[in-house]
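Record type: monomer structure entry
Structure origin: computed from sequence
Chain ID: A
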Amino acid sequence: MRRLTLGLTAFSIAALSVMATSAVAQTAATPAEAVSAGQFVDNLADKAFAVLKETSSKPAIKAKFRGMLKENFAVETAGARLIRRYRNQITPAQLAAYQAVLPDYVVNIYADRLINYSDADVKIVRTQAHGATGAFDVFTRITVASKKPLDIIWLVEKGSTGKWLVANVTVSGVNLSLTQEADFSAIIAKQGFDGLVTLMKASNARTA
């Protein structure tokens, strides 16, 4: 396990958006859960960056890395957040098409931001309650030799099974969920919702 330092006394919120709730446990946060949330991120970082150090082919490493993220990411929650402005304007068929391409697309957004840190050392700085929803912001610092340290905040929440999942990531102050939501809105404004789904399909095909 990487170095783990959890600060449990400061329970305030950093600049992260409140993710749309789906099947997320709505329970009050406890100190024990704060520790658990921090350990989840610590363990996930250990496993994820270990994959990036493997000596197999680069496509195989990327595929494994994205697969690991998909297993530990609240895809439905993140996806609902990205189209919240348009949810009541689209048809069931359009929603189904969006949900079909969503998992790979969302995971790729975050994987592309993290995949270049294969030699990273991850330190958990502190964990703070994210409102009263039972979710937590886990503050980490990623250090790579000869590079400026990178501060990443992981918003984690429990899914319907009680498993911790990553709902959003903020990299050096850039909230990836809000950034992607703005990008989606711009695409929909120009090309319509079907145009968005088409672009997502094309992006997934290029990644594959």
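Annotation 1: The first strand starts at residue 121 and ends at 130.
Annotation 2: The longest helix spans residues 176-207.
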